Amino acid sequence: MKIFRKFAAVFLAVMMLAGIAPIPARADGDKLIALTFDDGPSSQNTARLLDGLRARGAHCTFFLVGQMAERSPELVKRAWEDGHEIASHTYDHPQMTKLTDAQIKQQLQTTDAILDRAIGQDFDYMLRPPYGDYNQRTLKASNTPCFFWSMDTYDWKTNNANSVYRKFIKQARDGSIALLHDTHASSVTAALRAIDTLQAQGYKFVTLSEMFMRRGVSLENGKIYFNAYPGKSGTAPSLAQPVISTDNGLISISGDSRGSVYYTLDGSMPTPKNSTKYTGAFSVPAGTVIRALTVTKWNGLRSAETRLTYSARGNLFADVMPGDWFYNDVDRAVSDGIFKGVAKNEFSPDSSLTRAMLATVLYRVSGEPETGGELPFSDAPDVGDWSRAALSWAYENGVIKGYGDGTVRPDRNVSRAELGCMIARYLNLSGRDLTGLDDVLSGFSDAGKMPESMKDEINTVCALGIIKGCDGGLLLPDSGATRAQAAVMICRMLDLT
After folding, report:
1. Cβ neighbourhood burial of 54 (10 Å; 0-12, 13-18, 19+)
2. I want to staple 322 with a disulfide (CB 3.0 to 4.6 A). Which of 165, 287, 389, 390 is the partner?
3. In angstroms, what is the C-alpha Rg of the chain?
4. What pLDDT is attached to residue 68?
5. Active site residue: 30, 38, 182, 319, which one?
6. Lowest mean pLDDT across 163-167, 206-210, 338-342
7. Which one-letter DSSP state was computed for residue 282?
8. pLDDT band at 451 (very low <50, low <70, confident <90, very high)
9. Which one, of 212, 213, 150, lies nearest residue 178 by Cα?
10. Are 82 and 50 in contact (CB under 8 A)?
């Protein structure tokens, strides 16, 4: 089925020598490669390819055969939802120069309808002529941007992952269009390996629409493209993610000026049919999940998505969602200034908590009083300025203790037992009566793992309901404490004081 590929490759080489194909002047900004896959989707290979692309943050353009897409519509939809570009490779892979104009249009219209049904949208689709076989008549009859390639690994011929990988790496060039086929397992293996190698060299893998947009080329119907080598204008940045902010209870979204922002408020992925175009600030009820992206072209040229929850206390969280067991307490802890995010809109609930972080949280709860500045530990010079006052306060008031070797180890991760002990010491410091509490520690099946020096303090926080057991009646004292666990326990503590 590849009878015209050799002729097409020679034809392209001649054009390049003649100066018809653009020669790069300089490469400014990102090095781009448009990875394209023909003849799929493949029920055996495409899902693995999509998994690998997602893991690597890479995107590509799929030139799909209509009859193949008809068999695996779920793969077509998944590819589009993952941000890849869906394009046409005709219905049954004919040699287009042997078709009439009417037959060409029928091939494309049939395939377009199949792709629309699979994705659930109504799009226009770009084309790669099967076998690379085209002429000016077929381009005109197709009436859509068409694409050849500048990198051919002949993966369909060798069916050897190592050979395909070597050819891919050898031919890789900024602005190239790479041709592979996801109908071959070896091609998927080679492509993912090549992506790893070239990403380490600074290449980014993008859709055709993105690459040409970033190189300042407006795609035209009835025209065929071979590459997007960088020219004098350099490389424009990729579409920026929208920025969602809140002020006085109103949600604002700003996006890249090269597109329009669309959003949903029901937690669903924005699509042309279910999203709203942003035109100005709006209000939402607490617990709303806002999903937004910038769109220049719904199929092949949209930004990464921004997803945030608008909380009951007016916070925006990317990683704290309604229904999370820690949702309300994290919202409270952040609003009260007890915890701060690790980045804008990010709380990082599953991250570990260090001794310096915990000391800082308890110091904020105490109102950040003046300290004597005492920190008599050999590693005191390693303490960051952000936590020095907190650690000094914690040491002076017995909330934190040093180690036998004379260190305080501010960056050491806190265990659940250490978290409980420091909370118990803070309660004692705040004047809470901790006498006469029932013995509840013995009710945990792993209580024997607790050091004797910690048992009284851990029993205190367990008896007060600050620390509760995990599944199976376990306390898990040695497991690491997360930021979410600490926020929940601190809020329980505050409800007692």
Report:
1. middle
2. 287
3. 30
4. 98
5. 38
6. 338-342
7. B
8. confident
9. 150
10. yes
Residue 14 pLDDT > 50: no
Length of the chain: 497
Q: State the residue for tokens 């949702």.
A: 327
Structure tokens at 384: 């960051």
Residue 211 has pLDDT above 60, yes or no: yes
pLDDT at 16 over 70: no
Q: How far apart are CA 236 and CA 179, in angstroms?
A: 24
Q: Is residue 333 very low, low, confident or very high in pLDDT (cuts 50, 70, 90)?
A: very high
d(CA 327, CA 488): 9
Cα of 120 vs its chain's centroid, Å: 24
38: annotated active-site residue: yes
CA distance to 167, 204, 265, 347, 373, per residue, from 197 (Å): 13, 11, 39, 33, 51
DSSP 268: P
For residue 398, what are the contacts with CB-CB under 8 A and spacing of at least 6?
425, 428, 429
pLDDT at res. 471: 65
Cα–chain-centroid distance for residue 467? 33
Say if residues 208 and 177 touch (Cβ distance below 8 Å).
yes
Cα gap 105→88, rounded to integer Å: 12
**Interior/surface letters 130-169, b for 16+ CB within 10 angstroms, e for the rest:** bbbbbeeebbebbebbbbbbbbbbbbbebebbebbbebbe
Structure confidence at residue 29 (pLDDT): 61
Distance CA 193, CA 358 (A): 42
CA dist 317 and 349 (Å) reads 11
> Mean pLDDT throughout 386-413?
96
Task: Identify the DSSP state of 341.
Answer: -
- Antiparallel, parallel or unpaired: β 250-254 and 243-247: antiparallel
The CA distance from 68 to 304, in Å, is: 28
pLDDT at residue 442 in the model: 87
448: confidence class by pLDDT, cuts 50, 70, 90: confident
Whether residue 230 contacts residue 220, with contact meaning beta carbons closer than 8 Å, is answered with no
Task: Phi first, then psi: give them for residue 86, nearest 5 degrees.
Answer: -105, 130
Run of H or E residues at 161: helix 161-171
Cβ–Cβ under 8 Å, residues 228 and 213: no
Mean per-residue pLDDT, 112-130: 98
Burial category of 185 from C-beta neighbours within 10 Å (exposed 0-12, middle 13-18, buried 19 and up) = middle
Which residue in the list 59, 84, 181, 184 is annotated as catalytic?
181
Residue 228 CA to residue 249 CA, distance in Å, equals 45
